Amino acid sequence: MGACEMKPCSFTENEAPIGSSSSPDGHRCGDLEMAKAEGVHAHIPTIMRNSQAKGSITSQASCHEMASSSMRQVVTDQSQPEDASQTRVSRVEELLSKTLSLTDDKGLSVREFQSRRLANHSNVSSTALLLLATDPLFRTSWMDFLLPMAGPVGGLLSLMAWLVPLHHPLQHPEDWWECMLRCAIVWTPNEATFLTMTSAAMLWGETRVPLKAWISTWAIGAVALSASWSLLYGIWTLGLGLAGPVPFIGVFAGYLGSCAMVSAQGLFLPPQLRQQQGIRRTVLDLVLSLVFWICLQFSYNGALTITGKMTDYQWLPGGLGLLLLREICSCLVRRYACRAAGQDDFVARIIPSHLVSCTSALGVAIFMGSSATNETTWLLLLADFATNLYLCHKASRLLDSGENEKALDALVTMVLNESLEVLLPLAFLASFCMLWHSPNAEHFGNLKADIWHYKPLMDENTMIISTLRMIVVDATSLLLSSAYLWKKHKISTWQMFIFLQRNYGGVFAAQQSFLMENWYCLLSTLCVADMTFQFSWLPR
What we know:
By secondary structure, this protein is mainly alpha-helical.
């Protein structure tokens, strides 16, 4: 993940970057007083929660003076060593100096507007993460253990819809509507959640579900998918008089529905953002980011399709080729996401980075467990293992040289990669075992389907052993990196992981849930995706 310097943040005269109550002289510095009682580790998230509070600031010098004295008092009360205290004070003062500048946003372009709105959230997030990762007073609760499970559990719940028996359109052409109905009811709202939360987080830093946008996106996607599916079937069978099913009907209808939902995100921007200059370019960059993410998914799907039946030299296209395509698509996803956000900052990078890491973790797990040879499997595993250790070394080197912002990028990428490469394969393993024993198992490629370009698994142990091997390798790299960072820098990767979950867990869960559902949709033969292009059911 690339890194760049943070831009200074700004606020309008009607916004208070810090505080929820006023000080005696009218300044909104309530959170700074709260820090005296709760400590730095509680104070920083409070700043984040109230970064959009409304109010007025008449003297930023007074607030800055109170902030400095409050932070010094916190450090003194915690009785930490003098050098550590001075480091903590300097970091917090630097944070506050960035969040207390004021400006007017009238007449700004959309890029400048987004930069001023996102910069406060980004600077506070990155600095808070560095503080909390080394905070000995950091405490976890039972909720911290449940938050990371929200995405996998949501994915498993949506996949339970596959437990309802469906008829294959090759044997029952008259039941062509069954898969369409399931997609409109289950798949479409899942993707709507993913799109609305990802777009809101990347464009203006909102991490909650925009309910109105979600309902509208679901409705638009369901109508577009159902209408295109029905239209294709009507033209094919009634208009042309050809035998059903329609080749690739689920693929065409699904991506038309996705395009409609992606395009609809431009309709649900905040009024202030929608009125700014250059908003069309922002929406275009967001769409391009999602398009390159789709290309990343196709890279793994292509590895399953093209190299699935290769035995000799599979490691060339399925190993080295896949790694190259993954890096190209990942860079393009992050690049256009940052352009859509208006600047290359912490929030703009972390959301697409998590999306890329989720896609890669699930794609590698499915590929290795179904059709990858031993040479390809170990190549992919060792490449990820070496990448994670390199990121750990890079972060350590940057911390030694004082380049904390660049070190943060490497640390976040490492924590996301390693945690997701353990968590999501476990979730995938649970979903695989569930669907393997479901009545629709024969409808999934790389499970029991023996049709077109798919080859069935001989038994479920093949997938289970391969996935467990991936989990063990990635867990080893996670433990080694965590131990090294703790021993040398007293940085806790667990505290970093919990911080990310507390502040971005909703967006992460939406992405994970949808990707688990979407991967099985790509493998479903009910979409009639005959990649051999023989279409044997059609008359010759």
